[in-house]
């Protein structure tokens, strides 16, 4: 169950990170509110997950999910550059997340 909570927390981290772009410097009320809700929910779920998962592992997986998802959505939504090096680095992060999952 903790891994499910942690995965949801990571997905919500993607939501608030991408949401920051849509807040337009926190001048748009609805995107700002949705970003804030995603941020709080992500932290709450992370807090619940670390009750039974090692803190270092949970935090690294949480930030890894957020990093990979945000990087991919940056490419898809905001036309950020797609290079072999960028994709390779994303792949390394995914391998790190999987590695931490299997050793925890």
Automatic annotation (TrEMBL):
Subcellular location: Cell membrane
UniProt record similarity statement: Belongs to the drug/metabolite transporter (DMT) superfamily. Small multidrug resistance (SMR) (TC 2.A.7.1) family. Gdx/SugE subfamily.
Keywords: Cell membrane, Membrane, Transmembrane, Transmembrane helix, Transport
PANTHER family reported for this sequence: GUANIDINIUM EXPORTER, SMR FAMILY PROTON-DEPENDENT DRUG EFFLUX TRANSPORTER SUGE
Cross-referenced InterPro entries: EmrE-like, Small_drug/metabolite_transptr, Small_multidrug_res
Transmembrane parts of this sequence: 33-50, 57-78, 84-103
Protein topology in the membrane: Multi-pass membrane protein
Alphabetical list of Pfam families matching this protein: Multi_Drug_Res
Name the record gives this protein: Guanidinium exporter
